[in-house]
TrEMBL record:
Record key words, sorted: Hydrolase, Ubl conjugation pathway
Gene3D superfamilies named among the record's database cross-references: Cysteine proteinases (3.90.70.10)
Pfam families: UCH (PF00443)
SUPFAM superfamilies membership: Cysteine proteinases
Name of the protein this chain belongs to: USP domain-containing protein
GO BP, sorted A to Z: protein deubiquitination
USP domain ranges (all copies): 1-142
Amino acid sequence: MFKAFVSKSHPEFSSNRQQDAQEFFLHLVNLVERNRIGSENPSDVFRFLVEERIQCCQTRKVRYTERVDYLMQLPVAMEAATNKDELIAYELTRREAEANRRPLPELVRAKIPFSACLQAFSEPENVDDFWSSALQAKSAGV
């Protein structure tokens, strides 16, 4: 009932097709913001500030940027799966079943600790096309 009420004005979410949870959440946040009464915005409880730090590899100078977000998009570190043996066995069995036109085995999903996803989120990332204001040119950044 809740989903039907929230989705009635949205063509994608009012259908019976599978929808993306992230898109639905952002649709809900937008709906709350548009229909709020008074000066308080209830969706502000989901807002947070993301600070990005990029260091130029040549000058070692650092640039900080901030952005407001509602979602923390964590990378899924497949190499941190705790059931790697099961995943490998499943993949072999699945390929064999497909090759022999047999029913597929029961799906095995990767079990990845939340802490591994947080760790992957905070790992340094190489930025090849970083514009360095100190160099007035593109440089590598981290």
